[in-house]
Amino acid sequence: MKGLLLLIARRYIAGAERQDAIRAALSLNRLNIKATIDNLGENVRTEAEAAATVSEYLSLLDDIKRSGADSQVSLKLTHMGLDISAELAKNNVETVIKKAVELDNFVRFDMEGSAYTQATIDIFHKLRRKYPNIGIAFQSALKRSRHEAETITAAGGSIRLVKGAYKEPPDLAFQDKKDVDRSFEEIMKMLLVSGTRPAIATHDLKLIDEVKRFAAEKGISKESFDFEMLLGIKRTLQRTLAAEGYTMRVYVPYGKDWLPYTLRRLRERKENIWFVVKNIFD
Ligand SMILES: Cc1cc2nc3c(=O)[nH]c(=O)nc-3n(C[C@H](O)[C@H](O)[C@H](O)COP(=O)(O)OP(=O)(O)OC[C@H]3O[C@@H](n4cnc5c(N)ncnc54)[C@H](O)[C@@H]3O)c2cc1C
User: What is the CATH architecture assignment of 17-257?
Assistant: First the structure.
């Protein structure tokens, strides 16, 4: 089973080492595609593990600079110690942000399951007052996202809009794909007119076409927002959008803690689940 999952992981993950991610970012750059590199890991339980995450991100930022890769970084607050304390996570992520300021880079907070939404927003607000070089992700599946996204946008913050990769209860999240997509479209339009350089992160062709149509209709330039996709998904579409002059950025995960990320990608795609089932019984 682990072997099968590893096979699936190879599609979505650059490799186990930082240099694998740098190499992947540089190859994307050659196709005129930018990157955002993520060191895989979440829900660390000790301060020592959280400190190791910080140290990895500091080296990552140095290596991005040294290699000339056009890449931001993405991170998760539970990888920075949020399960231990909000104060610890805030201090740890601030260390990473300061380094990013020094190296003229940008840090995007991923959004995790709903147990962490409020803490992630609170830490983001506190740090955004001091550092303009940070952004946050919001999930259109969550009912609260529309309002929260408006608050952050009003303060000038940059949002990456995603549909949401976590299973959430009906009181917090839309359960029907149609509602998640409708929410995505509404928030997407609000972000595009906001002038806050949002990232529209989806592989959904219908929504991507709507972004293009809406932006053209409102005279929103291609340079004023990013399209973002995940490594290994819709590679041809990534290249096409870049060739059409849109800013295309690909999320490049690397690291040894590949399982939770791979399981989320597995859940998103029925074909992946069939692949596992078929091979188990083959
Ligand atoms: C840059 C980026 C950052 C993200 N950050 C976060 C985050 O911080 N928090 C969070 O909760 N989620 C995050 N996500 C994941 C996101 O929430 C969705 O789970 C994921 O993007 C799939 O949704 P979709 O918008 O592509 O639409 P869907 O309707 O799920 O998919 C549209 C099409 O894309 C293709 N596709 C989608 N998923 C896969 C897959 N796994 N394998 C192969 N093909 C696939 C299929 O062709 C599918 O029909 C991020 C996604 C991106 C692109």
Answer: Alpha-Beta Barrel (3.20)
